[in-house]
Amino acid sequence: MQSFLEETKTYQEVPFTWPKGYKADGVHVGLRKNPNKKDMGWLYSEVPAQAAGTYTTNQFQAAPTKLTKQTINQDHLLQGMVMNTAVANSVTGEQGMIDAKKMQKLAADKMGIDANLVGVASTGVIGENLPMDLIQKGVSQLELLDNDLVTEAILTTDTHPKTISTQIEIDGKTVTISGFCKGSGMIHPKMATMLGFVVTDAKIADGQLQPMLSQQVDKTFNQITVDGDTSTNDMVVTLANGMADNTSISIDDGDNFEKFTDAYNAVLTKLAQDIAEDGEGSTKLVEVNVENAATHADAQKVAKAIVGSNLVKAAIFGEDANWGRIIAAIGQTDAVVDIDHTSVWLNDLPLVDNSHSADFDETVMKEALTDKKITVLVDLNSGTATGQAWGCDLTYNYVRINATYRS
Fold it and tell me: Which positions, given as ranges, span the membrane (predicted)?
């Protein structure tokens, strides 16, 4: 099975750009110790936009995450998002919600819009209250600009911003879809310590944005893992402000709907891969493709079990073709598996043939494992369904980063 990067594209990937009608900015206000790192940002649409979101399933859901979910669920509209890094405002009791609402109101007043049109996102250390003097200072410094500094303002242990833009033509109108996200550690969505934002100027039919987002998140962000930990602040929010003035996109309009969802999926897939590749301390992106599964759910389950196995991740870091770890990860799931006829390939080289070791050259396989991207293909021989997941290797540096996270 091919990754989307190898498939025929119905969209064009372009340098990162904001779709029509969006403004953004990012500043440093002192939440992070390094003065060269942005730590607050926002995103604004000139008109209220249709909004949809997906959120962490962690029981200790952070105040800003709860507030954004409540805000979107009121009318499924947003016109702005305000964000900060370094302090998660999570497990902070009643004061946490008070601070999140104040942050929302400060941003709304500066934008000149109703507070019920502003979402809030925070990430960083759990259990610390927001320093509201710095939050107020940050909002006062933010402007409605065309820069992309907000993509830096949400980073924690990430090594770089993660962004993508695509464009398609809908009835002669250019539609742009742009996304950015953060995430490096505590990544095991449904959801994880990640924030994702996807904005478009497309006009989408009423009631169709939320199911579209939920379906695509299940196939992308929910299929990545770095370390198996799910955090308290995760969310993916998408806005569609309709300013491209295209014919409204609906599931009943097969061609345009398919064209849009292909480009939308490409944005979310690329962002998910970027998070996996930038996993804390990682040196390799790991992609697992599963084919001939009994169901799509089985294929997804097996793919994520493999990328999530610490033993598999360690073996890939050590460039050791220890295929027993892959087989063991498959067997730990409740997926339907033909245990006598399961096959595995690594970077197109046969590793396991019908549940027996393939006749492979250890030297050649070890060389293949030096690649920066490792692709594992699994044939379960149990049906026709496929699935895909992404992760990274497990390195000594991961332990160092997380042993000193607060210092």
Answer: none
